[in-house]
Amino acid sequence: xxxxxxxxxxxxxxxxxxxxxxxxxxxxxxxxxxxxxxxxxxxxxxxxxxxxxxxxxxxxxxxxxxxxxxxxxxxxxxxxxxxxxxxxxxxxxxxxxxxxxxxxxxxxxxxxxxxxxxxxxxxxxxxxxxxxxxxxxxxxxxxxxxxxxxxxxxxxxxxxxxxxxxxxxxxxxxxxxxxxxxxxxxxxxxxxxxxxxxxxxxxx
Length: 204
Known about the structure:
By secondary structure, the protein is of the alpha+beta class. It is built from 2 helices and 11 strands, in the order βαβαβββββββββ.
């Protein structure tokens, strides 16, 4: 039997290469941030939650914001003059055996992670499918794009990953010896969304 299976409502994930090495000034600034106290074994986050607003990271912020907008325009194709602005940004530091809980980002449209320092072939981010409304469980013989509840994407130095802020994701335990360092961020609309005729128009 020949069955044509179509994928509808796919979840977009963006992957963009910075295309250059971070400067020593940029690295020093990122490496030397003060961190918040966290649960034992959990990746630490910088106290600075406006990290990309610093002049030292101006070029990196420009790259991330322009990439986020290109991603947003491609997947949304808005009919109004609207773009995304970075709202908050912070750095993450994971040592061997540290992890981060499954979570998503509130008050944000597109979120992302830029990887500064990683363990090659071992660091990754894991995205989780929402199975809370599924009324059954089937154990597959082999996993594929239809029956997988988790999807791993490599975390690679110099790579920016973009994804919908509602997508649940986590950092599995760091197994390499290098400290895993990344910059995370949130975005929100700037401009016009909705429609005057449909009574949904909003200027932000």
